[in-house]
Structure of Lactoylglutathione lyase:
Amino acid sequence: MDLDELNNPRRRELMRVAGAATLTGIAASAMAVAAPAVAQGPASTSTARNRGAVGARLQGVQHFGVTVQNMDRAFEFYTQVLGGTEIMRDGDFQGDVIHNTLLLTEELEAKRRKVNPRTLGVPDLRGGAQRLDVRFVQFDNVVIELLQYRDSNQPQGSGASFAPPHEHTSPAFPKSMHICFYVRDDVDFNQFIHDLEEESARRGMDNVRANRIVAAGSEQERKQAPLDTLTNRITSGKSDGWSLIYAKGPEGEQLEFVQVRGQAKQVFGDAYETRRRAK
């Protein structure tokens, strides 16, 4: 693919707006992650907005990104196991523009430390030694972007990645992030978690593992825990009605699954309506 084409502003714009259809479905969710887009007003309104608070210039969350070790495996999990729909895929990104856009801060940190940027996990997109591939997956109210950095001689999809995964997987580490999925109100949460692990294992993704609400001394004990220990159900306070469990995805990424009913659903619904009216 031609370098000029990869750095074409229109291509960058396509990536920026991928999944914009999520915004139309957000209002139907009691825990919507974004407010509806504001209709285009007169020039004076636009001018006022551009001079106003930074937060008032947003129209919501566009996507969450996960850098993966194996693109094909991650894509299979998010589409065939969790049921997302592919929006688009693109790849082989390289060159000065994309390198500076994504990696300038890390590169400057390497210079400050007087070390080779590669030792800090900075791939060489500038020179093309490494390339970036992306795939966008649509869910009802959010888009997930899968990213893979690979050496230029590696094939797209299942080729080896540029860097190993983080050694620290605990969500307690600052800068850790997670993706949270809704479970429908009428679904048996415990059975869902059980089937998630079973389906993932059937596909060879044995590292897709959900926590339990009881302690386990071994992986075998975790697996053998009773079905009713797969869900943490909160039954008091403003979070009453919130059910959750943490799980690891196939790339070691931190996932959360929640069911939001009762008081918790009302709290989030009221907050959304308050924000919507304020717009």
